[in-house]
Amino acid sequence: MKNKTLTLDALCVRKGKQSLISVDTEVAPGTITTIMGPSGIGKSLLLAAIAGVLPEAFTYSGAVYYDGAELTSLPAHKRQLGILFQDPLLFEHMNVVQNIMFGMSKNESSKLSRTNALLDEVGLKGYGQKAVQALSGGQQARVALLRTLASSPRAVLLDEPFSKLDMQTRQQTRRWVFDTIRHQGVPCIMVTHDKADAHDAQGRVITVAHSEKEKDQQC
Ligand SMILES: Nc1ncnc2c1ncn2[C@@H]1O[C@H](COP(=O)(O)OP(=O)(O)OP(=O)(O)O)[C@@H](O)[C@H]1O
């Protein structure tokens, strides 16, 4: 396994005996692998399994490795992954800047100036002191993206990251997010229904599908 690569080793999410989704892939640092497929097939659950937050009703088989070390044996908080869920929850008792700085290292200097620079880059200059409830859905989505990427994660998991953004903001934010991932050199897995997201990601696209044969198969 290559350095700083995120590896899904026959990772399979199951409900009882039924296999929902199974993916076997390696994601190199600074690249984005896109997962596409029908609604309800288990794409979000796959990300939850990688992150270590799979709901109790489900189980998984296989394993996840980062840089050759198994992540699936670690509790979620020790995996150090940056995760953006489909409905990202911002901390409502914190303002925009506090939300973004939340995951930054305690030792990091000039957190505030870095956060303000990040806000500027995604078109939210001057929004730092606002309450998150005062932002639109698209603005909140961008704050959640910044919080995910600012925490210096070892790998990034994005679930429909741009779905709440209008066309123009979507293109700009997408470009910024993908450039940032490449610049940070972290592996990223993105779930999306939008082919333009997959195209701009310039990485491997994995399309998952329902398969009668696989349904009752042990994976
Ligand atoms: N916490 C949960 N408890 C019980 N069932 C769940 C839970 N989360 C997801 N499911 C169910 O598991 C199945 C897969 O859900 P998941 O959200 O992973 O699908 P998805 O492929 O990401 O769909 P979409 O593209 O619509 O977001 C669905 O039937 C969903 O209702």
Automatic annotation (TrEMBL):
Pfam families: ABC_tran. The keyword Membrane does not apply. SMART domains: AAA. PROSITE patterns: ABC_TRANSPORTER_1 (PS00211), ABC_TRANSPORTER_2 (PS50893). Keywords: ATP-binding, Nucleotide-binding, Transport. Transmembrane segments: none annotated. GO terms for molecular function: ATP binding; ATP hydrolysis activity. Residues 1-219 form the ABC transporter domain. PANTHER family: SPERMIDINE/PUTRESCINE IMPORT ATP-BINDING PROTEIN POTA, SPERMIDINE_PUTRESCINE IMPORT ATP-BINDING PROTEIN POTA. This is ATP-binding cassette domain-containing protein. It comes from Salinimonas iocasae.
